[in-house]
């Protein structure tokens, strides 16, 4: 329980008490909600994993008309699950309806890259989507809306969003760019048979694209350097190149690693 506001008024003390921030229902917008990530994400939001176990939410799910039926299916699943924190579900293909009143927006909707494409190759398609969605957030979302961009190229889309939703504070807009770091941690933890949480100081230089350079020079497990523990420069090079080459989905390296 928290005291949110306190006011003295001619002998009476008015105290506004809230339980966490759970007295207020937060509108959470999720674009691309019937896609692979969206379908996994919305139940997590409804369960309180994103905003906390005392935060009721109304989910506003947006997708495009060809996905309307699938989106409605996602809504039915959410209703079936009877999440106690879920106070309402809007499933819509109308960007204005999706953005109206939301205080958190998770932007997953977009054109995913196909085999052989780089993330910048989907930029032209996703730029126009992001302009339209940013304008709707600018006009209809809560003025202090927090925005998380997932759709690629995530950092460029976040920049577009910032440009086209100028009244949303810049510090409220961010994007997911940790994936390559986590990927490298995962490869090293598998190789050394240690917990991911034990792998420290891996660095990813560059962008979430073909320009990235995973660097384990300073990486450690316990107090030991990773290169010393792996004792196999060829594996390190291949493994880290694999992280980079996921960019181009050149999975042929998987076979090289398995054959090694
Ligand atoms: N930043 C990261 O770490 C990261 C990680 C994985 C995937 N991604 C990106 O996330 C995005 C989604 O990936 P996915 O695997 O769920 O793809 P997906 O194709 O399964 O889902 C995308 C969804 O977006 C919808 N969509 C397309 N245009 C839309 C629009 N204008 N408005 C609203 N919805 C729209 C599609 O109908 C679909 O339901 C892709 O751009 C992918 O590259 C980012
Ligand atoms: O490959 C993609 O474009 C999706 C995501 O960014 C990834 O790296 O898996």
UniProtKB/TrEMBL annotation:
Residues 177-232 form the Lactate/malate dehydrogenase C-terminal domain. InterPro entries: Lactate/malate_DH_C (IPR022383), Lactate/malate_DH_N (IPR001236), Lactate_DH/Glyco_Ohase_4_C (IPR015955), Malate_DH_AS (IPR001252), Malate_DH_type2 (IPR010945), NAD(P)-bd_dom_sf (IPR036291). Keywords: NAD, Oxidoreductase, Tricarboxylic acid cycle. Pfam families: Ldh_1_C, Ldh_1_N. It comes from the Eukaryota. Its EC number is 1.1.1.37. GO terms for biological process: malate metabolic process; tricarboxylic acid cycle. It catalyses: (S)-malate + NAD(+) = oxaloacetate + NADH + H(+). PROSITE patterns: MDH (PS00068). GO terms for molecular function: L-malate dehydrogenase (NAD+) activity. It is an enzyme of class 1 (oxidoreductase). Residues 30-173 form the Lactate/malate dehydrogenase N-terminal domain. Belongs to the LDH/MDH superfamily. MDH type 2 family. PANTHER family: MALATE DEHYDROGENASE. This is Malate dehydrogenase. It comes from Carex littledalei. The lineage of its organism: Eukaryota, Viridiplantae, Streptophyta, Embryophyta, Tracheophyta.
């Amino acid at each position: 329980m928290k005291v949110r506001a306190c006011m003295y008024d001619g002998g009476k003390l008015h105290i506004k008490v809230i339980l966490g921030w759970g007295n207020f229902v937060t509108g959470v917008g999720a674009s691309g909600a019937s896609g692979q990530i969206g379908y996994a994400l919305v139940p997590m939001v409804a369960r309180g994993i994103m905003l906390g176990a005392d935060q009721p939410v109304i989910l506003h799910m947006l997708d495009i008309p060809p996905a309307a039926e699938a989106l409605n299916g996602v809504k039915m699943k959410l209703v079936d699950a009877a999440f106690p924190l879920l106070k309402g579900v809007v499933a819509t293909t109308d960007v204005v309806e999706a953005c109206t009143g939301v205080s958190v927006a998770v932007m997953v909707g977009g054109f995913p890259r196909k085999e052989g494409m780089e993330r910048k190759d989907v930029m032209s398609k996703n730029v126009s989507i992001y302009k339209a969605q940013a304008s709707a957030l600018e006009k209809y979302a809560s003025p202090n809306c927090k925005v998380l961009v997932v759709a690629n190229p995530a950092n460029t889309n976040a920049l577009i969003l910032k440009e086209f939703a100028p009244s949303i504070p810049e510090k409220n807009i961010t994007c997911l760019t940790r994936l390559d770091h986590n990927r490298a941690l995962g490869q090293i933890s598998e190789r050394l048979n240690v917990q991911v949480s034990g792998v420290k100081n891996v660095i990813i230089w560059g962008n979430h694209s073909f320009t990235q350079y995973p660097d384990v020079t300073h990486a450690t497990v316990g107090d030991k350097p990773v290169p010393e523990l792996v004792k196999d420069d060829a594996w390190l090079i291949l493994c880290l190149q694999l992280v980079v080459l996921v960019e181009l989905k050149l999975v042929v390296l998987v076979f090289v690693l398995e054959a090694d």
